[in-house]
From TrEMBL:
Subcellular location: Cell membrane
Family, as annotated: Belongs to the G-protein coupled receptor 1 family.
Record gene name: npbwr2b
UniProt source species: Electrophorus electricus
Alphabetical UniProt keywords: Cell membrane, Disulfide bond, G-protein coupled receptor, Glycoprotein, Membrane, Receptor, Transducer, Transmembrane, Transmembrane helix
Taxon lineage: Eukaryota, Metazoa, Chordata, Craniata, Vertebrata
One term under GO cellular component: neuron projection
CDD domains in UniProt: 7tmA_NPBWR
Transmembrane segments: 49-70, 82-101, 130-149, 161-188, 215-238, 259-277, 297-320
Name of this protein: G-protein coupled receptors family 1 profile domain-containing protein
Amino acid sequence: MGNISNPTNTNPQCNLSVDFYYYGSLNRTDLNCTPPSDFNADLYVVLPVIYSIICAVGLTGNTAVIYVILKAPKMKTVTNMFILNLAIADDLFTLVLPINIAEHLLHYWPFGEVLCKIILSIDHYNIFSSIYFLTVMSIDRYLVVLATVRSKRMPYRTYRAAKIVSLCVWVLVILIVVPFTVFAGVYISPEDSARKSCVLSFPSPEGSWFKASRIYTLILGFAIPVSTICILYTMMLYKLRNMRLNSNAKALDKAKKKVTVMVFIVLAVCLFCWTPFHLSTIVALTTDLRITPLLIGISYFITSLSYANSCLNPFLYAFLDDSFRKAFKKMLECRTA
């Protein structure tokens, strides 16, 4: 999806300011000029293929994660409750990718105002939900390490409590995304009434509103949660180091170590996929960029990379979590028996 900011500008030098890129796709109405036709043709073919692969792999993998966690009794743990909600968020996003693909192929939005608001809202849920559930998982890992160092039990750390925390995360994300839902709408080109785009359409001055929305996303969707996670893991490593050097307490058992490592790797992959998107926010806010085929290609690569995060997590669980792998294998054996 894109954002409208002076769409009727016909600057022949093809300058782009902060509105050159926004989450989703780079709509034609966002451009002040048209890139080379052969470049457009390549994008027209390549992007639907990439999005379709992400959709198919993500939908299959995350559905499998949801199924295994819900059906296997041994998978009902606190960490897996957060993983379940992460998989639901990723599945929800991959379900709407075909609509994004259709818009890209048609070069206009044919689905109406209501669906536009729903799709753009889900797009933004994807920005916030993954990092917030990973933040909660990091807090949980820190509390587990802290309790282990102090040789204390955690009676409040229950599956039921994890459900309540997960619900709170969903409510928080919904509240954060409400402004985007309000401003989402169908933009009709003044030159061609049949040319419609599903965009964030801000009131005047559009540029200021757009910058505010980018800063809002950068702070709430990246700066605050990532800073929290970094502080937690720094403190966690510090306590583990001190435990080995200065304490006779038992080290984390093998299972807890594996879960902590898995959460850390899932977090690292998430940051790898999303950091370029948020860095593009900083670039868009601080520079005026001249549009080139390379710049458009980079913007689509950044979008595809952020989309790809929704299909990578199931593979990480399969490689890093023995209990998930065993539960999934057992269910396959039951299905084929």
